Task: structure prediction
Amino acid sequence: MKKYIPRIADGILEKKLRTSGAVLIEGPKWCGKTRTAMERSRSKLFMNDPDEFARNMKALETKPSSLLVGDVPRLLDEWQIAPLLWDAVRFEVDMRQEFGQFILTGSAVPPEGSTHHTGTGRISRMLMRPMSLFESGESTGAVSLARFFADEAEQCAQTELSIDDLAYLIVRGGWPASIGLNEADASDVAADYVDAVTKQDITRVDGVLRSPSKAQVLMRSLSRNVSTECSIMTISKDMAGDDETTSLPTVSAYIDALRKIFVVEDLPAWNPSIRSKTPIRSTPKRFFVDPSIAAASLRLGSASLMGDFLYFGQLFESLCLRDVRVYADAIDADVFHYRDKTGLEVDFVVVGRDGSWGAFEVKMGEMRSDEAADNLLKLKGRVDASKTGEPSFLGILTAGNHAYKRDDGVHVVPIGCLGP
Result:
């Protein structure tokens, strides 16, 4: 077994086990949920183990509690294969009245109505994503998102990552199995992931038979429109360009299935209190959970990205979002985007549980830093500080090499310097 690479999720899991009877780790397949849970668990049940599957299902029918016996925390991997486990865990947590009893992992949301109880107050949830650049060792992490909120961020830092490196890292993705691989082999991992999603997982999630070819065309359309606010109608029309005529309800149903297996993770709009009466748009921006999914769906390598800097920029934004979301999870914050009817748009707004907030614009090249800073400062001026508070930070995420603070107070941060 490969040596375990520590994850930011380790600390989140540890904290939740101290305050919850059970913890559910959700997220896309291959992102490392099971391995992270194994590092913390003291006994294990693998529901998809073919040697034990029949016996486990029989035990579930006769005495579900027998599957919960073992040293704690006990890992219940791929629990959604047998949703009755959820209710059994909830009941057992009620009976034991102790924290840190179970860790459940799953790469799909079970069908609605398959469990009798929500688990509220007994089972805490956490979402795990593919690895950030800090976790995989490419980012120095010298500029900390947490310290931004504490007003303690380093002003100066540098990274050795080049544009060519970032193109490779987008194609490679944050899959633990890809860390250390060359581009050709890493591309195969991402391509295998897309194949599994379109040919198997999109149907297995709820048992509804779906066309692999239709799913592949949809994935390509979503890839072309990544980092945008494209509508279902736009995607449907785009799919028609690939000779795949699909109704709007069908497109919507397929995208919903991708959400249930954590492949698609859209970025919701931020709706703060603002000084003017300018309407705020509420349309989410479309993203995959990892930029490599888009590259693999369109069969693009790093050389292709270097030849199309416009699309490179879209995937660079996707890479930045993945990392910001991972770091935000560590401080219990959420990430949004902002856009109003005047056309003012800010790529990421990070909002803490206490309402504190900060914002990032994403610009690959620093030549557009003035434009990005102007957008951030306009947003600061439009937000009603008496209700929403002043921003903890304003920053520009770049593909450059040096982190510093501009004279206007806006931070310039290479993604290769950002960390939790």
Notes: The longest strand covers residues 345-351. The radius of gyration is 22 Å. Residues 183-204 form the longest helix (22 residues). The domain at 8-127 is CATH 3.40.50.300 (Rossmann fold).
